[in-house]
Design goal:
The protein is mainly beta. The protein has 1 helix and 9 strands. The strands form 2 sheets. It has a 5-stranded mixed sheet with strand order 3-9-8-5-6, with no helix packed on it. The longest helix has 9 residues, at 14-22. It binds copper (II) ion. The site of copper (II) ion has 7 residues, from loops.
Length: 135
Amino acid sequence: MRDRPCVAAAGSGLLLLALSACGGSSSAANGSAGAGPAQHPTSLVGVVGHNDAFVISLTDPAGTPIRHLAAGTYSLTVKDESGIHDFHLTGAGVDKSTTVGGTGTTTFTVTFKPGAYTFVCDPHASSMHGRFTVS
Ligand SMILES: [Cu+2]
């Protein structure tokens, strides 16, 4: 929720409450749902396990992370670069995955409906995950 405007109430004890409510986000909040205008890229790119790193991402072709996507049908190219990770995208009407042991590039056609979607590496979902909203 890093993008949420942080409005501190002037005066009295409310200020302290407002500050504590606004200070908690860390930049490690990978994939926090954004509130800005919906992104509508020409296609989507998922990458997992580059150089066997424990990193997963979903971006537009220019590398901008997907936070808030316009509903519709997209081509999703997943580059699974590691034999210890997979790329698994789920949400309303969508369940697309590469395999943990396999590597290579796979292209999926995915139709997104309004709602929340998540992508994870299944064996390491607690640390390798992201989410975005669709509207
Ligand atoms: Cu993994």
